[in-house]
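During the reporting period, our protein records have gained a structure token line. One record among many is quoted in full directly below:
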Amino acid sequence: MNNVISLVWLIPVLPLIGFLVNGLFRRHLSKSLVGIIGSGVIGVSFILSLLIFGQVRQEGFHPVIVSLFDFISVGKLSIAFAFQVDPLSSLFLLIITGVGFLIHVYSTAYMHEEAGSDYARYFSYLNLFVFFMLLLVLGANYVILFIGWEGVGLCSYLLIGYWFKNIDFGKAARKAFIMNRIGDLGFLIAIFWMVSQFGSVDFGEIFSKAGTPGAVSVGVLTGITLLLFVGATGKSAQIPLYTWLPDAMAGPTPVSALIHAATMVTAGIYMIARSNILYSLAPATQTVVAVTGLVTALLAATIALKQNDIKKVLAYSTISQLGYMFLGLGVGAYTGAVFHVMTHAFFKALLFLGAGSVIHAMGGEQDIRKMGGLKKHLFWTHLTFLVACLAIAGIPPFAGFFSKDEILAAAYAKSPVYYSVGVFTALLTAFYMFRLYATTFSGAFRGTHEQEHHLHESPSAMVLPLIVLAILSALAGFLGIPAAIAPDSHWLGHFLAPVFEGSAKLHPAPEADKGQELGLMAISVGVAAVGMIYAWSRFSRKPDLEEAQGFGKVLANKWYVDELYDAIIVRPINALGRFFNNFVEKSVIDGIVNGVGRLVQYGSRQIRLLQSGLVGGYVLLMVIGIVVLFLVQLFIKK
């Protein structure tokens, strides 16, 4: 077992090698070779992840720390560059490398029109993104996790701004980078606080000390966990740091799939799930997490109702689904949250790659009002996209039903209000997803004649990943069958139990009432079905082609949150910058510096007059000096 796990370092190193090879030799490698290298290194990492996963799921497995070298050693603080292999990290390895591999394969066809060096640059960035995400989930301490955390932030900037000649795309990349830095500051302060409080950044040592009764005050744990959550709101796009994610659609569509499904936005969920014992010991923070997630889920779902850009609808859908995950974390349903991360990775990657297939067929068009009737031309894209819509809507037996219902059941046990808002959000989700599906694939084609003439199914390199993801979106839910349907059949719950064991002891889950649980399922499925059927009946033949009016305009303009941020944050900061530039910099600082220079020049001109060269003048000055000294001496004596 240890022989396989000792090779865990190869899993992140292989994508790093792919980044270096494609990046350094981008002008010399053919596109075919670039695609093989870029996809191949992720494929091999996936195979290694499967081997390690097979070892982890064996009976009697205990977490393994693979220490590579001493990274930082200052006084009593020692930080190792170490990886932790346990059920949680091994599951995320499969998600990242598995879905990441499919996205890489898809990209070989989707990005084929790019110039050779740009094509290689794209794959090098994509490989680097996967490397940092793997580093994040494998790190055995908060510092290694934070290195990966910062790395995915950097790669998001590079990939969102991949078409850097477009000024708007560059602005979107900077927006993502800056908003993430705000959250990252909270995370960094939390790490310093943990070093001060625990004398360590290792997960095992911190969790052990935190779990010791009386060792750490609840106030300290609340402060640390809130700061960690600030970091999570940035990475995982929660209120108030969520507005960067829709703008991230500026990058190529496979990048959107990678960011939204398998990597960056799940980082916050992973970090809190990894830190579950700290959050279970800080109930006030858990409430903040749950409420923030719930409000974010609802807000993003309302915005998605009136978006017409196919990628923007999916972007707000991602924010909403992440809100569900945070709701699960906040109510202590850690397994449910991770379960939803997994199922969401499958159906959201499928949705984005399906959207990419549509955009590819439409010659770059992203406005769903200019589509329609595409199911006649894009058979596999339409079929797989429908599977993903059913999964995200929570229709059984598709994957999203199982994971979302587990979160809603835990939310009901915590507070019926949480459940009610969650179910209403599920209604909106089903509605806007089938509005998107019906407007895109049903009815008559509304594009140009030239677009219609060129409509065709995507190449096999794009279709095959869609089919694989559709199968996973349809079947993955059976890894977490609820007890009300089949007792003791929640495989994922048993697998992750050792990771969440401490939290389960602190807050044991209430005994499930089979009848109540089935009733809650029936309500959520019924509500989703209503939203789905209503959207289909309304938009399949008469899509909403008019500009939004009234309250719909508020939703179409995203509740004017960007405008609000611009008014209360961006403009005041810019005005302050102009004040410092125009007055403080030019009048005060430049005035002082230039004034000193002028004073020295003036003084020099006056003092040089003393050196006249006239002997009489020197004698006069000497006599005056003698007289002054004589008077001073007389004054001192008196």
